[in-house]
Amino acid sequence: MFQTLSGRFFILTVLFVVLAEVLILVPSVARFRQDYLSASLERAQIASLALEAEDRISSDLEAELLETAEIYNVVLRRNEVRQLVLSSPIPAPIVASFDLRHPSAYDLVVDGLAALFDSSDHVIRVLGDPVRRAGLLIEITMSTRGLHEALVAYAIQVLWVSTAISALTAVLLFWAVRQALLLPMRQVVSHMQSYANAPEDARSIIAPNARLRELREAQDAMKSMQVELTGALKQKERLAQLGGAVAKISHDLRNILSSAQLFTDRIEASEDPTVARLAPKLVRSISRAIHLCETTLAYGRAEESAPQLEWLKLSRLFEDVVEAEQLASEGKITFTRTVAEDLQLRADPEQLYRVISNLCRNARQALEATPGQGQIDLSAADAQGHWWIKVQDNGPGLPERAKNNLFTAFQGGTTKGGSGLGLAISAELIRGHGGRLSLEKSDAQGSIFSIELPKANN
């Protein structure tokens, strides 16, 4: 029972109600004792009226009056004169005196609890004001046995009533909470279990319908989470399918490129000056393609291999990228390079080439889709603690949708029909170097992508 929320709620409700009743019982016991002693004083005063009606009464009648009032002696004080009205032998010494005329709340509580838990039979003196001002003071001596028995009976009765009230309250609260909270929560759990069995199925996504604001907020949050998770799972499945397709394509493409590499080896022996100048660049491009295919086949997953760091001359890498992009643009775009001829940095040359080539290709495709003369500038410098590389264009800037998911695969495409893989791969490659790829600016005057490579890891 303690392992369920409903069981714990039921038991806690009973405990708290009983605790409340106990807190109520303490002042109730004090009040009951006060009323009991006040009633004893009234009975004593009534018994003393018999003596006033008769000048003398028999000893048997006096004893009967005292026994009926459950007291031993009655003393009245009138006009500063203390008069013993009724008396009988006291079986034991008086152990305490209680003045009911001006008691404090603390004294009432302490004396009430003491009378409840002390079962010994003592003789006590009680002082109080006479009824209807029939004198200055009335004083009685009495036994505590009757008071103790009355207090015990009263406390037991209160506890029984408290138990019944707490049980009824707990049952009603349990039923109300079960209907208003527990059953809707079980429905949410049922939705969660149903969704866990088929997270790709959009039909199992929860439809918020709770009336309680807190539960409705939980359902709304769960729906948002399930929608995002379902989308992520579909994207993951798409990536897995794409990975399998890429692996197959890479396998066949590697074989084709290997054959092309054999032909370029022969082309290098040509005496034609143009062929001799372009052949080495063609060989390097084919070698890069073969290396990329082999890397894809070796790992067979979306993760990139760790970078193989080496010192490279950045101006030469810029030259390779620009020549490849100039051929693709057919001279419609101007490329500039702002980099020191002797600037060297330590990075993986193949991976860095892929990153800069991706950025230039994206810029070129954006410029080709807009009128006017396009320009792309590659710049780099050695800064304090890091190297930076920038790719800047004078294009129309990126749309807001692309900015929000710029480095997310299949969501950050910057051109119509683009998959957004280029920027996602580039960001991953730069992170592998311990660096950062970011969009520094993108507006109507153009875009600037910035690469930061730390020297600390070198």
Automatic annotation (TrEMBL):
Q: Which InterPro entries match?
A: HATPase_C_sf, HATPase_dom, His_kinase_dom, HisK_dim/P_dom, HisK_dim/P_sf, Sensor_HK_Regulatory, Sig_transdc_His_kin-like_C
List, alphabetically, the PROSITE patterns matched.
Answer: HIS_KIN (PS50109)
Question: What SMART domains does the annotation carry?
Answer: HATPase_c (SM00387), HisKA (SM00388)
Residue spans crossing the bilayer: 6-26, 151-177
Organism field = Planktomarina temperata RCA23
Residue ranges of every copy of the Histidine kinase domain listed in the record: 248-457
Q: Name one GO molecular function term.
A: phosphorelay sensor kinase activity
Q: What is this protein called?
A: histidine kinase
Q: Which UniProt keywords apply?
A: Kinase, Membrane, Phosphoprotein, Transferase, Transmembrane, Transmembrane helix, Two-component regulatory system
- EC supergroup of this enzyme: transferase
Q: Which reaction does it catalyse?
A: ATP + protein L-histidine = ADP + protein N-phospho-L-histidine
Please report a single Pfam family linked to this protein. HisKA
- Spell out the PANTHER family in the cross-references: SENSOR HISTIDINE KINASE YXDK (PTHR43711:SF28), TWO-COMPONENT HISTIDINE KINASE (PTHR43711)
